[in-house]
Amino acid sequence: MNDTILEKLNVLANAAKYDVSCSSSGSSRSNNGKNIGNTVSCGICHSFTEDGRCISLLKVLLSNHCIYDCAYCVNRSSNDIARAAFTVDELAELTINFYRRNYIEGLFLSSGVMRNPDYTMERLMNVAKKLREVYRFNAYIHLKAIPGASPDLVKQAGLYADRMSVNIEIPTEQNLKILAPDKDFASVYQPMALIKENIIISKEERKKYRKSPVFSPAGQSTQLIIGASPENDRQILQLASGLYDFQKLKRVYYSGYVPVTLADNRLPALKQPPLIRENRLYQADWLLRFYEFKVDEIVNDEFQQLDLELDPKLSYALRNPHIFPIDINKADYEMILRIPGVGVRSAKLIVHSRKFGRLNENHLKKMGIVLKRAKYFITCNQLTDGHKDILPSIIRRNILNEKNKLLKRFNENQLSLFGDLVV
Amino acid sequence: MNIFLYDNTFEGLLTVVFESFKLKILPDAIVYKNKYQPSLLDISFEIITDVLKAERVWNGIKAKTSKEACDMVYHTFLSGMDNIGMIIFHYLQLTFAANYNVSVNYREESVLLIKQIQQKVLKEAHRMFMFVRFQKTNNDIYFAPIQPKYDVIPLIGKHFKNRFRDQIWIIYDTERDYGLYYDLKTVEEIKLEQHNINKSSGKIDASLLEEKEECYQVLWKSYFDAINIKERKNLKVQMQFMPKRFWNYLPEKNNG
Ligand code: SF4
Predict the structure, then answer these.
(1) Lowest-pLDDT range, A38-42, A44-48, A184-188, B55-59?
(2) Mean predicted confidence (pLDDT) in A45-61
C-alpha cells in the first residue's frame, strides 16, 4: 500500500465526518453463497470514536473538491484546505479489504461536487457498481444522491445501493438560500421524491415478479444541521415528522452545527456545537418513531423549543398532568409507554407479566424501571395515589435535584447521545 | 449439604436435573467436579453425563414452555457463572411444577434472573459481531483471536459463516483455548496445538502475516482517527459502548 492512499483516506474521511448518519440498518440481504457479505437488519457498530459515535460504515467522500460554496460546509470552494480524490478502483479495493477484516458493515459514500452534478453522480455509482459486479460485494452501500444530478443517474445508482439519501441540511428554504446560494429546496426534494417513487415502484414490481431489481431496499434518510440557522425545534420536528409521513423517510439525522468557519457573519459564532439540543431532538425523534407520539404533543404553538433540562417525554408528562397517574396493571401498552422512566423493553415486560398477577413496586424495580422518575406518574398495588397530587413544578424540581446529584459525579459535558433515551 | 458434581457441560447439567428429580433429592449446590473441594458435612453425588437423559429434560422444557425458553436456558448456561447450575435448577423446578408456561412470567424472580443473564450473554455474542478483527495470514486464512467474558463461541458461527462465505477464517478464544474454523463449506470447532498469538495484544506473529496486512491495520487506525470530531470529545460514551477490555485486540486501539 502506498502512502498516497493513506493521505487520501485522511483527507476524505476527515471531510466526511460531519455527515452524521452511521446507521447501516434496515436492509436484510442474505448471502447466496457466491458473494461476500450480507446485511443484517439491526446494523452493527464496529468501533466507537473518541467522540462516542459509532463506526459502522466506511464513511468517506470520493472527492472533497467542490464547485459550490455552502457556508456551513468545510468543503466549500472558498475554503483553503487540502483536497484529494480517490479513483474508483482505489476506493473499491479499500472497502472490500476493510470489510473482509470485519472492520465495517459497508460503505457510505458521498462527495463534493466535481465539475458538475452528473459527473459526480456517475462516479459514485461506478464505485457501487464495481463493488457489486467485480468484487461480488453483497454488503451495505449507502450513496448520496447529488442535488441536481439527472433522474436517470439517480435511478441507476439506486439499483446498486441499499440506501440513498439527499441532505436537506438547512430546515427552511429561505435560510438555505442565504447559506448555500447554489442550492434550493427543489434541488433536494426532486431527487428525494424520485427515490421515494422508485422504492415504491420496485416494491410493487417485486410483488409481481420476484426477480425484479431491488431499488434502495433500506429506504432513504436525510440530515438536518441544527443551530447554523435560526429555526426553532417546532419547525425542525414538524419538518421531520412530515418527512417520515409523506416522504416515507427511514431516518432523519440531526447534526449539531460544528463551527467550520470564523469569518462569516451569516453563521452564528458558537463556542461549541449545540450537543444538548441535538440530543433532545434525537429523543423527540425517538418518541415519534417508537413511542407513538404525535409531533404536536412534543412541540406546539405554546411550546416551541424543547426543554434543555428535561428529556421531552418527561417534559410532556409534566405539561399533561391530567393523564397521570397511569395504572400499571390496567393501562394499555401505549399509555404505559408514556410513563417517564419506562422504556420500550420494560413496557413489554410489564404487559407480559401482569397477565400472571398484579405487579407491585418490587416487580417494577427488578424489571429495571427507573422508579425515582416513574413513581410520580404511576399507581400499582402498593404505591398510594398520593403522588398524583404533587404539583408538576415540584416534580420537576425533585427530578432535577436528583439529576444534579448525578451530574456532579460525571463531568457536565460528558453527555451521552443515546444513553438516556429510554426515559 | 447435597452436592451434585458434574462435568461442566450443558448436557451434564441437564443430567443432574434428571437424576435429582428421579432420586427426589434436591441439590444445595451443583459443582464442576474438577473444582470441588470436599467437606465433611457434604454428601456428594457424582453424576455421569448421559445424553439421552439430557435430551429428555430438554424435550420436557420444550413441551412445558417454548423453543425460545429452551434457548434462554442454554444461553444462560454459557455465562459460566459460578452458581449457574443452581440458578438454572431453580428455574427448571419452577418450569416443571407450573401448569402453564412460566418462561415469560417475569414476576417470578428466577425467571427474571435467567432472562437478565441471557441478555448479558447475547450482548457479549453481539459484541463479537462488532469487535472481531481478522488478520490475514500468508496462507490466506483470516484469523481473529478473541477473549470474550462468556463462552459465546457456540453462538457466533452462523453469523460469520453467512457473512464471510468466500474466505477461510478462524475465530479463536485465547482464554478458553478453542475456536471455530470455516473451510468454505462448514464451520467446525477446533483446538490448536500451538499458535503464534500474543495473548495480551491479540497480534499474530508478523512473519506469518500476509504482506499487506499491516498496511490495512494502519489504514484502519488512521481512518478511525480521521473520522473523530475533536470538538465533540466524549470518552465516557466511547468507553460505555466499547469497554476497555476489548481494546487490546482492536488494531485501532492497540497500535499506540
Ligand atoms: S455542495 Fe456539498 S460538498 Fe459542496 S460545499 Fe455544499 S455541502 Fe459542501
Answers:
(1) A38-42
(2) 91
- Quote the CA–CA distance of B101 and B110 in Å, as a whole number: 14
B222 contact partners, CB below 8 Å, separation of at least 6: A6, A9, A10
- The closest of B50, B35, B39, B26 to B5, measured between CA atoms, is B35
- Ligand 1 lined by A76 (C-beta under 6 Å): yes
8 Å CB contact between A375 and A369: no
Least confident span in A25-39, A58-72, A373-387, B194-208: A25-39
Amino acid identity, position B182: Y
At A75, the amino acid letter reads: N
Residues 6+ apart with CB under 8 A from A196: A220, A247, A248
Contact B134 A416 (CB under 8 A): no
Cα distance between residue A142 and residue A153, in whole Å: 15
The three cell numbers of residue B124 are: 457479549
Under a CB-based contact definition with an 8 Å cutoff, are residues A142 and A107 in contact?
A: yes
B-chain residues near A411 (CB < 8 A): 236
Q: Sort strands A106-110 and B168-173 into parallel, antiparallel or unpaired.
A: unpaired
Rounded to two decimals, what is the model's pTM? 0.84
B235 and A50 within 8 Å at the Cβ level: the answer is yes
Closest CA to A253 of A25, A8, A3: A25
For residue A318, is pLDDT > 80? Answer: yes
Distance CA B35, CA B61 (A): 28
What is the rounded CA–CA span in Å between residue A85 and residue B11?
Answer: 58
**Domains within chain A, CATH numbers bracketed:** 2-298 (3.20.20.70), 312-399 (no CATH)
Between CA B158 and CA B129 the distance in angstroms is 11
d(CA B21, CA A177): 77
Q: How close is the Cα of A113 to the center of ligand 1, in Å?
A: 7
Q: In this complex, is the C-beta atom of A81 within 8 Å of any C-beta atom belonging to chain B?
A: no
Dist. CA A66 → ligand 1 center (Å):
6
Task: Tell me the pLDDT tens digit for each residue of B150-197.
Answer: 999 999 999 999 999 999 999 999 999 999 999 999 999 999 988 788
- How far, in Å, CA of A48 to CA of B237, rounded? 9
Longest distance between any two alpha carbons in chain A, whole Å? 71
Could you tell me if the CB of A68 is within 6 A of ligand 1? Answer: yes
A223 lines ligand 1 (CB under 6 A): no
> If you search the block for the grid coordinates 480521521, which residue do you land on?
B226
Q: CA–CA separation, A22 vs A19, rounded Å?
A: 8
- For residue A147, the CA-to-ligand 1 centroid distance in Å is 10
Of A76, A146, A224, the one to substitute when testing ligand 1's pocket (max ligand atoms within 8 A of C-beta) is: A76
User: Do B238 and A50 make contact, defined as CB atoms within 8 angstroms?
Assistant: yes
Q: What is the DSSP letter of A259?
A: P
